[in-house]
Amino acid sequence: MNSERPTAEGQGQSPLSSQPVEAQSGCYIAPSPTGQVMFDQLEYLLAHGGQHCAPECMDCGRLQQVKNWLLLPFHSAMHPPVQ
Fold first, then answer.
1. Local confidence band at 8 (pLDDT 50, 70, 90 cut-offs)
2. Which of 5, 3, 82 is nearest to 43 (CA)?
3. Cβ-contact 67, 82 below 8 angstroms
4. Lower CB count within 10 Å: N or C terminus of the chain?
5. Cα–chain center distance at 22
6. CA 77/CA 7 separation, integer angstroms
7. Does the pLDDT value for residue 13 go beyond 80?
8. What are the residues whose beta carbons fall under 8 Å from the beta carbon of 11, sequence distance 6 or more?
């Protein structure tokens, strides 16, 4: 995962926490819709896929996993997943 992107861990919050977060002013911040978060992550991974990275790049590995899962219904039993 890209260490330059903000994460819940970097903000002192549990990454698995589903509790609402209060802003500095005490206002309630509603969670983002799951679908929007998934599309944002996919957009990031697709943009990252064009970069020249080391073979052990975590984001490139995540992109490949997502591709394999999304394309799985289109693979026949005779063809291995996309590598």
1. very low
2. 5
3. yes
4. C
5. 23
6. 38
7. no
8. none
CA 50, distance to chain mean position in Å, is 16
Evaluate whether 13 touches 7 at the Cβ level (below 8 Å): no
Q: What is the CA radius of gyration of the chain?
A: 17
| 78 half-sphere exposure, CB direction, 13 A CA radius | 0
Whether the per-residue pLDDT at 54 is higher than 60: the answer is yes
Inter-CA distances, 11 with 5, 21, 38, 67, 70, Å: 11, 11, 21, 30, 31
The pLDDT of residue 12 is above 70: no
Residues with Cβ within 8 Å of residue 73, at least 6 apart in sequence? none
Residue type, 13: Q
12 with 4: CB under 8 angstroms? no
Confidence at 17, pLDDT banded by 50, 70, 90: low
Domains of the chain, by residue range, sit at 32-76+79-83
